[in-house]
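Our working data are protein records whose layout never changes between entries. The record below serves as our worked example for the rest of this section:
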Amino acid sequence: MATTTEKFEPSATTTAADPHSPVFEARNADEAAQSLTGKPWMYRARRFGPIRIPAYASPPFQLGLVAFVCFLCPGMFNALAGLGGGGQIDATTANNSNVALYSTFSVIGFFAGTFANRMGIKLTLSFGGLGYVIYIASFLSYNHNQNAGFPIFAGALLGVCAGLLWCAQGAIMMSYPPEASKGRYISWFWMIFNLGAVLGSLISLGQNIHSSAGNVNDGTYIGFIVLTFCGAALAWALVDARHVQRADGSHVVLMKHPTWQSELIGLYQTLIHDTWVVFLFPMFFASNWFYTYQFNDVNLARFNVRTRALNGTLYWTSQIIGAYIFGYALDLSRFRRSTRAKAAWGVLFVITMAIWGGGYAWQKQYTRAETSADDYVKMDWTTSGYVGPMFLYMFYGFYDAAWQTCVYWFMGALTNNGRKLANFAGFYKGIQSAGAAIIFRIDALKKPFMNEFASCWALLAGSLLIALPLILMKVRDTVPLEEDIKFSDETIEEVMPTLAHEEKVH
């Protein structure tokens, strides 16, 4: 197979003899970075005919691995959650399990940046993935013995595991790519991740396509257990963050020698030095609040099991479309990044009013008392009038992807420091989970559907207004490397572009 070499050459106007020239500095950077690089094979891209595979230790390849971990672990969880009630007829046990899940998630998640920075991404992600295996196994057990204690315990354990997994994932997704590509990297991750939920929904649809029952069968749970275990194992294929190298030879800014003390202090420093991030906290809080309403009060309340599986497939497919559109739009280089941030905020506000306005028209048609009646007949995809709510549910999925993509991009626009972004991701998932725990408890208390719908719409619109000052004043067109390096024990020479970096393609 042919081998080609691509080199990034320094300017011809500089000379290696000049100690202040970019060439001389690049050579110093190469020497300083030797301790940060891994084995040579990690940095060779390969080509199979027209297909080019990025280097193993490159940001695209590593992000792809993380995306497939989430494809197999949270993706299957989302597919199960999308059925409503964990695939059961009644959502009470699943709601109580999710209250436990998001309660522990909110605490661990907020501090998860400290754990991820100290433990490393491989251990953090793999341990996080195992929680999904146990959680899904608990519902398989519940199918046979109706022991609600196991799903509640599994939910609490998953809260710990998921807090770690999502923190590591967020740090990788926001800190590995160069500034100009963060939107695309977020969209790539979100598309691959949601393919997992699409696959899970298709598995459920195939298992239950001829069923009009309310709960899914054992085969669905077993399939999900196998896939989530594979995801936890796949995390060990990642390289350490210090070995990741971008196309220009630059490295991720992080701590070379993290300790528990340094990372706890770093968490405090993040809150003190980046206080403006609190303006995003309401958006964090709202970002999973609406799941409970959509999955339990729309999908579970109105549709039978096979139609719920179809709705889930369409919901997660719409997320892929939303992530693609918003991720690539956020990286449009013809506009300044500060301009793109303002435009993203405006579009989010408009679709919040449009999509949730349509949701209000739908929610006026039914109540919890009506759908809880013993003689209530749930809607099938063959029922007249199904097309309208089907498209509404698809738009809900599109909206979720737009929201999550923008929130991650806003955080990534504030800094490129991997250590700081791990803390941002922890704040995001911790606060997000606190909201989820509250709304799952509200739903478990059987509050009116319209009340829950109104809370979703109000939180989304209100949090956008609170975030506006940060969007207007703190999103800059670029963040200087000198500023990023202040929050680590690395030097500029160790992480800067090497200029003479070469990439081999085999």
